[in-house]
Design goal:
- α3 packs antiparallel against α4.
- β3 (20-22) and β4 form a beta hairpin.
- This protein has helices spanning 52-60, 148-169, 223-251, 254-275; strands at residues 2-4, 11-13, 20-22, 29-31, 42-44, 74-94, 101-109, 129-130, 140-141, 177-198, 201-208, 214-220, 279-282, 296-297.
- By secondary structure, it is α+β, with helices and mostly antiparallel strands.
- It folds into 3 domains: 1-40, no CATH class; 52-220, no CATH class; 223-275.
Length: 298
Amino acid sequence: MEVQCPTCSAKFKVPDTVSIATCPYCGTTFHVHTGEESPEEHFFFPPMRKDAGGVLLKFLSRQYGAPADITGAKVTKKELHWVPVYFFYLHGRSKRWSTIEEVRFVGIPAGSPFQGLLKDYPFPIRGKRFFDESVVKKGRYYEPKMSKEEAEAIARKLMEGALRSEASQEDKSLGDFEVEVNYLGLVHYPLWEVHYEYGGQNFVGYIDGTDGRVVQAEYPLMSGARKKASLLGTGVLAAGLIIGIITAGAYGSAWGLIGGLIPGGAGAFGIFRKGAVKKRKVSEVTRVNRGNLYFKPM
């Protein structure tokens, strides 16, 4: 038979004998005959079967300036962490403008040392299962340090910010608005912490335990890549200086020199900051409204 999710309104088919179903689109668990949400609110995502260390090193081998033999680095530690995350379905709209409307699924990390790491993380919606106590024995388990109400307030603010951002992009005043927040449950989400050794130095990476995405990782940048970056940055700075001198001579003003140095210096700084370092921090995750934050030097 066909049922409709009370949260996201998606329609899908389930066997006639089923009385409780989980929406494959938003994860809401509900009684198929009444539409009422099930009181079961604790879930977990089963961890992937792939080796987290191998996934990390293979990803790093594709990064700019990484050692060619990094896949052979020694993995010194692998630990699975179960991070508590409150999941919400958000629907917000402006009462003044029909074009300003947002729908989102968000996860709010509620505890563990990884709250900052997973802030604004694009958690998947599908795949969660009812919580099993055996999960506690499979890694380091963290209890929530934040209440559901506190997490809901954060989720509401995220939606309000998204509505204001959309209104500003349309050059409109948001005016009165309404936000609907539906609680989808507490999920314990798997995160792998992997340490490895290369060239006598220790590095660390964090892997999404569901699909193997690299949340954040660091790797050594080879000297050849650093030298190329240094030469390129120096060339950009020199080009800015030359253009500035020519412009200053043509117009007889020091502002021409400054006008050439500023963009040249800015471009060179970016190259030096990312390419002339010994360690790089990278990620293959794009955050909501933030882009990829982890292509950084250390």
